[in-house]
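> tool_call: predict_assembly(chains=two)
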Amino acid sequence: MAINWFKYAAPTTFYGLAGKMIPFFAWPAAILFVIGLYIGFFVAPTDAVQSEAYRIIFLHVPASILSMFVYLIMAGYAALGLIFNTRLSSMMAQALAPTGALFAFISLWSGALWGKPMWGAWWVWDARLTSELILLFLYLGYIALHASIEDPRRADRASALLAIVGSVNVPIIYFSVKWWNTLHQGATIKMSGTSMQIAMQQAMFAVLAACWLYVIAITLARVRSIILEREANTQWVNDLPEVKQTNGRLS
Amino acid sequence: MTPRQKRLWFIVAGVALVAAAVGLVLYALKNNVSLYFTPTQVFNNEAPQGRSFRIGGLVEVGSLQREKDGLTAHFSITDTHKTMPVVYKGILPDLFKEGKGVVAQGKLETDNVFHAEEVLAKHDENYMPPEAVDAIKKAEAANAAAAKPGGSSAAEKPVAK
């Protein structure tokens, strides 16, 4: 059976497909969030050294991981858009940016809240914290650059370049705790396994999976809005039942 | 080459060049990117002299002493090779403990003591419930006892806490 994948690369067909897919990601995301946070706050044991404050990792670690992954995916879509001139890829990159920025912010903010009682400082200029801050600025810069150029196709190309160049920062964030002396601790989850108690792991991986599903659902929802915005003058958009209804009400 | 392939190679080459440039810059700034110096580096005169810098390592076990004012603390930071005495007046963070990681900012004075203005605790990557920590300590003590021929290790040497 041959599926014509390029059919779904057209905004016209993807709009409907995305709308159908959203519930399949949004609901599992919500359920996993509840399960993960329940295990994290009520089942997982207290930490021997940090007592209750360690529970920030159930939010902090998934947010940090996602902030890096989302950036790589965004840069990948931006590169696809540049190379193949596909409109949908650029729209996907644009749709991912706010979510990535949100996760980078949550990572920095929750880390600061944890850092004050544990380290004794809200913020230190160590390599891990600084490179994550640069990641947040890259996201904000991408969003700002895209918004500042009127023509969406030109905006796509300019901001794609920024996104691609910025992807160099992601491995720096990840390896910063290995390459330099930092205050931030090393990786707990390694390829060789992890040094964590099992309920703590379950909670963290449940929230991590929930965050992944949330990213997919929210990006699909956002890309639908972007499609409508950019194709507002086309016939197929005006023929959509939801658009017809709204237009009818307005006039 | 088609325009697509051209663009692809342009991007690949661009990213490789930027990565190389950033890598060289970071390598050149290696000492500035690192948050702290180890005691060994300080003894090798790699740390800046006469101005403030950070020193990091483990708090040497048995080195912590508090003065009568309750605020001033004396301890040593070690990287298991060299050891640096530190004096600090202020509140130590909750995670500050002998045998655990610490980063102190301050100046090395002429008395060869590091006068810290700020002390931060460095946490390791292990998360464990208290029972697991107890179990590990017991296992370690049992191993130490088993390793010594003739039994009772406690009489010769106190078991490390």
